[in-house]
Design brief:
single chain, alpha/beta, Elongation Factor Tu (Ef-tu), domain 3, Rossmann fold, 2 domains, six-stranded antiparallel sheet, 10 helices, 26% helix, binds adenosine-2'-5'-diphosphate
Length: 282
């Protein structure tokens, strides 16, 4: 097929040529969708091709979106994939009335998405001082950046042990569970790197499950420490480093708890013992 013909391709209500000129005018990349996976009626993941010049630090987010009339409609999305992957993966909710996700949930392989050129964020190991254990605590789609950080070899150079917790309402919302329980352990590089150094700790708040309840409660009640074989139910400011990603209320509660335990929030310019980012919702 000639380039001319492929540019006449219709993507949603626009032609590829229209999308390309909008991307150029707004200084955005226009990237092809290569994979879509629906976890539940409310959650899905998708991948786009990664532009050669697109660089990011594992854990960062970027703006992605679709054409909406005469302008692009963009929302922040954490990147699920680590910074060495050839594609960019995202994890999203489907909000029926959400301006972007109501349309995004119908994505198909071969569609195109806008991608902004400047990724950013604070859920990066650069914003944390070195430590012994890295606790990555996420709720809902807040798991996304944690999956990126987990698969960055720098993370394993900086920390001896990694714990990922994921709290959701119903068990079926434990997206990436099979990946975290099985696939990563069979991975050529990470299988070895994570052996005896990685714990995946899912919790479910509104259904029967072996580790039931909000992670905040499980930490405070001591169940979390007991399940992990840790001494005491407090984070040790000398050795514990924490990444938090979830709803506003969750982030706020986690931040107060960590501050009570004597941990200090870090940033890119001033690394600390914990970092926080809101899980973005379209
Ligand atoms: P819960 O079912 O008790 O509200 P959501 O889908 O609302 O973003 O929530 C995702 C998960 O995060 C749910 O399991 C929810 O528990 C939990 N959660 C919500 N707010 C908080 C909070 N402030 N502290 C701890 N967990 C929370």
């Amino acid at each position: 097929m000639s380039i001319g013909m492929s540019q006449e391709k219709t993507v949603g209500s626009a032609t590829l040529l229209e999308l390309q000129s909008m991307a150029e005018a707004r200084k955005l990349f226009l990237q092809r969708v290569t994979w879509v996976h629906h976890w539940t009626n409310g959650l899905f993941s998708f991948r786009i091709e990664r532009p050669d010049s697109f660089r990011f630090r594992s854990g960062e987010f970027v703006m992605i979106g679709l054409k909406d009339g005469e302008r692009p409609l963009l929302r922040a999305y954490s990147i699920v994939s680590p910074n060495w992957e050839e594609h960019l993966e995202f994890f999203s909710v489907k909000v029926p009335e959400g301006p972007l996700t109501s349309r995004l949930q119908h994505l198909k392989v071969g569609d195109y998405l806008f991608l902004s050129k400047k990724p950013t964020g604070t859920l990066v190991t650069d914003a944390l001082k070195p430590g012994k254990r890295l606790f990555m605590i996420g709720t809902g789609t807040g798991l996304a950046p944690l999956l990126s950080v987990l698969r960055d070899t720098e993370t394993h150079e900086k920390f001896d042990e990694i714990i990922i917790t994921h709290t959701v309402r119903e068990e079926q919302e434990l997206a990436y569970r099979n990946f975290l329980e099985e696939e990563i352990h069979a991975d050529e590089i990470f299988g070895e790197l994570l052996r005896d150094r990685f714990t995946y700790y899912p919790t479910v708040t509104r259904g029967e499950f072996r580790t039931r309840g909000r992670i905040t409660e499980r930490i405070q009640l001591g169940d979390f420490a007991k399940d992990l074989g840790l001494i005491g139910n407090r984070f040790n400011p000398q050795t514990a480093r924490v990444m938090v990603c979830g709803s506003m209320a969750f982030n706020k509660d986690m931040a107060s708890m960590l501050e009570e335990h004597g941990l200090k929030e870090g940033s890119n310019s001033s690394p600390g013992s914990f970092v926080i980012e809101r899980a973005f919702v379209g």
